[in-house]
Design brief:
- This protein is an alpha/beta fold and 384 residues long.
- The protein has 16 helices and twelve strands.
- The strands form three sheets. A six-stranded parallel beta sheet has the order 9-8-7-10-11-12, sandwiched between helices.
- Helix 11 packs parallel to helix 16.
- It starts with a strand and ends with a helix.
């Protein structure tokens, strides 16, 4: 169980808002049983004869406006003993944090934080008791609590990933679109646009299903949806032209953490490869554009095998070309078809979702689900 204590000056405005906003977020995420959340004050002005005042009425009204109930909450004071009771003690501003250190003493476990630091900001959350601006305070608290929950879930995913010694990894094999480069989202746009020019309407759900779908599955899928008369090669060629024109004009971005992860693997002499549904010419072009050319020991295209993803062919071929057993290799994928391909080949699969999250069935194929390539690097750094 994760135990969180939010702290402000009087425990009648900001910290109770944080307490009940966070409780609402974890409830809606179905995680209530995994958290214990409370709040406290650094000062005693709102506590009389051992009984705390209730939440300040405007703060209570602002929470109620968003469907959040704080009934029964009364101010309590932070104590030195709270340091041992909570995993995270989170102040709203710099003064709160300073007073928390005064009350709690040293922070050897690194448990004391300022809320908006989880959102990558050093800003203080203003006290609405003085400003009267409960809208801004609510927005800031929600931003901080949302970022805090994302951080905690990311840390949990990293901590629950299996321990795999680096010297036992034969190779790390990466998908391209949506994994190393931020292009998967454009297939979702340009498949429907190309089909529309031929008189067909593709839904967003159908476009998502096409991600990393290789030969002969893509051909069969489109004909099942739109009829045998569909000219797959003509539609695909048009999609490629539309997408290439857009990317040549707008450029391509690599996924966050890609270069750092590849440098980490190279420094540890771990073999790397790309296994992609894209042809080799396009793969080389895109890797060069994002500064990743020359970072891999092999580039494997689905054009080199009989069947594309979700068939295991491309991963089996990649492993054979690298001289590695599939079970020693880690595959990094972003889409269901890619995950299934690597899993069926016998690789250990990490998914970094790009467009959709894995469902329960797909999750059974994974050793881990990570938020980013940076998280994979951090996980590997702990697997010495």
């Amino acid at each position: 169980m994760i135990k969180i204590l939010f702290v402000c000056h009087g425990n009648i405005c900001r910290s109770p808002m944080a307490e009940f906003i966070m409780k609402d977020l974890v409830s809606r995420a179905g995680l209530s049983e995994e958290f214990y959340i409370s709040s406290a004050a650094t000062r005693s002005e709102e506590i009389w004869n051992g009984v705390g005042n209730p939440v300040y009425p405007p703060a209570k009204a602002k929470l109620r406006e968003h469907g959040i109930d704080c009934m029964g909450k009364r101010a309590v004071q932070l104590t030195r003993e709270d340091y041992g009771k909570y995993d995270y003690l989170i102040g709203m501003d710099t003064a709160n944090v300073r007073n928390m250190h005064r009350i709690l003493g040293a922070d050897p476990e690194g448990r004391i934080h300022k809320l908006l630091s989880f959102a990558g900001s050093n800003r203080d959350i203003s006290d609405p008791w003085y400003t009267g601006d409960f809208d801004t305070t609510y927005r800031d608290v929600l931003e901080g609590c949302t970022a805090l929950l994302e951080y905690l879930m990311r840390e949990r995913r990293r901590s629950t990933a299996p321990h795999i010694p680096l010297d036992s990894i034969g190779a790390v094999i990466f998908d391209l679109d949506g994994t190393l480069i931020d292009t998967e989202k454009y297939y979702r746009v340009f498949w429907p646009k190309a089909l529309a020019e031929f008189g067909f309407h593709m839904s967003d759900e159908q476009a998502l299903a096409m991600r990393s779908l290789g030969r002969p599955f893509a051909i069969r899928q489109l004909k099942d949806w739109f009829g045998e008369e569909l000219d797959y090669q003509a539609v695909r060629s048009r999609r490629k032209i539309l997408m290439e024109e857009y990317l040549d004009r707008e450029g391509i971005e690599r996924k966050p953490g890609a270069r750092e992860l590849l440098d980490f693997l190279r420094a540890r002499h771990i073999t790397t490869a790309v296994a992609t549904a894209s042809d080799l010419e396009r793969t080389e072009k895109y890797l060069k554009k994002v500064g990743l050319a020359g970072c891999f020991d092999a580039l494997i295209s689905a054009t080199m095998v009989k069947e594309g993803k979700p068939s295991p062919d491309i991963y089996l071929y990649a492993c054979s070309q690298l001289g590695k057993a599939p079970e020693s290799c880690i595959a990094v994928e972003d889409s269901p078809n890619g995950v299934l391909s690597a899993y069926r080949a016998g690789c250990r699969v990490i998914m970094v979702p790009d467009q959709t999250e894995p469902d329960d069935t797909l999750s059974e194929c994974l050793i881990a689900r990570m938020d980013s390539l940076s998280d994979i690097r951090e996980w590997m750094k702990g697997n010495k």
